[in-house]
Amino acid sequence: MSEETVERTTEEKAQMYSAMLGSVSVITNALDSENDFCSDMTAEEVKERVMRSSGYLAGGLAMDDWGDEDMSTINTAITAVTAYQEMMDAQALQE
User: Fold this and answer.
1) 30, 50 contact by CB (below 8 A)
2) Structural domain spans, the chain
3) Could you give the CA distance from residue 27 to residue 52 in angstroms, rounded to a whole number?
4) Which distant-in-sequence residues (6+ apart) come within 8 Å of 12 by Cβ?
């Protein structure tokens, strides 16, 4: 069984890029302790939301048809999530 390559349109790429920037916003706001975003959620719920958003970003970055789209903001968000995950793992080890 062979894999079929599906080419995305310029509009589809733009829509996904916009959605990815939305995920960056979710991550940035969720990790900002001075922001009220997610303030009604438990730490575990925030972690789940951040990790879900990060997974979406990673999946989007894995697509190889972005051309010269600037992914620096997305990469920065993924780096922040990696640091957050390391911090959460270290805290879990101390409990």
Assistant:
1) yes
2) 42-64+71-95
3) 10
4) none
Q: Rounded to an integer, what distance in angstroms lies between the CA atom of residue 48 and that of residue 73?
A: 21
CB 54 within 8 A of CB 88: no
Q: Which two tokens stand for residue 13?
A: 């790429």
Predicted confidence pLDDT, tens digits, the chain (95 residues): 556 677 899 999 999 999 999 999 999 999 998 888 888 999 899 999 999 999 999 999 999 999 999 999 999 999 999 999 999 888 888 87
The phi, psi pair for 11, rounded to 5°, reads -65, -40
User: In this structure, what token pair is assigned to residue 47?
Assistant: 């972690």
